[in-house]
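seq as requested:
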Amino acid sequence: MKKNIPISSKPQVQSKRQNTPLKTAYYLLLFAYLLIPVYTPNFYTLDSNGPKFLSIAILNLVSLIVFLLDKDFRRRTEIQAGFFRNYIGLAYTLFIVISLLSFFQAINLPESIINFAKLFSVFASTYSLYVIFSSDRRYILHVAIALSLLLLFDCLTVFYHIIEYINKNISSIYDIKTVYSHKNVLSAALFIKIPVAIWLMLFTDDWKKKLGYLAFFAGSLAVLFMSARAFYIGLALLLIALVSYFILRYFVLKHTFNLYKILAFTGFFVVALLLFSLIQHFLYPVNKDTKEKFNTGVVERLSTIKPGESSSDARLANWKRSLILIKEHPLLGVGTGNWKVEVLKYENPLCADFNYAYKNHNDFIEVTAETGIFGGLAFISIILMALFFFIKVAVTPRPDNESLKYLFLPAFGLLAYSVDAFFNFPADRPEIQALLSFYVAMAIAFSPKQLLNQRKYEVPSAVTVKSKKTNRLIDTSIAGCCALLTVAAVYALTQNAVSLHYQLLAREDNFTNNFKHPASLMLKGFPAIPNLTCLGEPIVVNKARYLIVENRFGEAISLLKHDNSSPYDSRRDYYISMCYDKLAMAESAIYWGEQAYAKQPLYGNLVTALSSRLFLKDRQTEGMQILDKYLTQIKTDPSAWIMSANQHWQYGQQKLSLQIIDQAAKYLPSDTAIKKLRENLHTTFDISPYQNLYERANKAFNEKQYPLAITLLNDFITKKPQFAEAYSHRALCLFFTAKHAASILDINKAFELGITNRSDLLNLRGINYSSLGESEKACQDFKLAMENGNAEAVSNYHKFCDQKE
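struct tokens:
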């Protein structure tokens, strides 16, 4: 049997080029692409992704200048054009071209421009990294070491914050995000860097291998601490893929089964899992009243991935809507960046507020919806071809196969990225796109076809002058287009970053309902693009709010009417209706309210405003129908229940009004406004046959004709013996006629019939007891009334009870 030959970190045959020193400029570019997308500050913008994408675009310009100044790059045409002559590079280029063509389908062209600028910036950074890796394969080792150190740094920050969480210095694991924009971005950054640690463990030696083991263990533990369900699944998937790789290589090489490495990987993972479980069980703070959802075990956390769980339901709903969009626009999609615009025609009719989904939480589906089936296939094929080339090399029975080493990292890296792309939206997260650029660049640079191109460079073959000129013309044209697009991307992303600054100002003012900035600043400050905020809201709505605050309703209407940035969004119509209402133009307010209602029939503020306007304009039936239809689906809006009950009562439908308010009390039992209205409506309805008699009694009481009031109330109570308020009124009359015992009996009867929280009656009963000489009972009532906030009871308690204590 042949001896198992380990895979060395050095190729068996090195070209002369690999003995030359590595370029400092290329090193600086590599580390810039690693660090700048993560550590660029947000520059006081609503979304830190804006400045980070801009920094990537600017870095691409710097890279372009570095390459043009590099004589070696200018001379090596096989590297310049190799990206576009590689299957993976061609698939990526095709995806960019299709994304550009999808502009013809876009409802919102500025949004397509911004999104394409982001896509192209990542594409250009991938090309730059490809050039570096193709120029010398040794860069991959240095990148792997740097990424592993970054992974360890991220892990240390997670561990520090977990200690803070244990010590109750931070309230939630959700708040752990370190330098990243969100907890999930940090989780993804940890997980997607783990394949780098695995690569060091398998394909290096000495301290580098130990660094890999340490980074793998720390990364797995940090991912577990972050309690992200997608990456729990991802860790299991990576482990399964790794074991499958070892088994495949065993059958291919027919060598001894490499059980040691399998046990090493699974052992480190199991130890990390056990350590996480022990810390969570014994050290995590537990508050039984407000148990945090992230403060749960792995199995319990994974068990929440099921229909009925809110985030899972939202994802599934968005995926289904996206599939509808794909069926409607199969060729070029709805336009890159336009998913959040188009999906509203299916999402908005089911939304009860303006919190819309601006991302699909599955990049594969969203990309396909935006660029069509061919665009989606091109995007997916980037990852599938990298995996295919790796598997193809892995089944080759060569223990020292150099390609295996160089394709392992991008294959497993893209597999990890796919997990994030399936459950989240890393396409809009520059920190994760930076990692994607590294992995795709490696896949293109080290794929079998590209390695062949490099060998051809070392032993050039004869090529005709004509063919050279043709290729040079094509290459120059491609390079020129890419350079122009890079400059355009910098410009577009600069405008986006400026807009994000003003978006933050507007959001802060709107959130606090304190509009500190003048409308003139917002009208001039926002650039022409984008015309939607990063959360999908038309920017014109932000501007209109400031005009409305300054009572410039006509200007707001004019501004809103000329905007069609998001035609399925009801906010524009809603604010136009509001402005017309402020101008007392009822018909116009109703018209635009109906336009908004047609798009979003479940938004409570819109429904109640439109219903009220219709009711006041003698269109009572329409107004009540809108409100009743709304309440069949939304049961938790107290203002809608109250308005509906009042409208039906005013329309003469008293019994239906009582049914509505009874339903409201059933769904919202603790709402005090509903309770009060229900009591009033039932009271009014109950006494309606004897309303005149009751009003005469009240009139006599107000005129201090207490004996007459008692006589009338006696008559009323004979007819309505279960009406509690009548006893409370008669108790007052009896008190003023010095019939204290009878007054006490009426108060007790009122309480018996359901009157609650009446401190005035408790105080009155205390006075009656005091007048009868029953001071102990009097003090008890005064104390109860005092505890319920009755000011007179406080005075009575001090007057009659303090001395006795």
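The radius of gyration is 36 Å.
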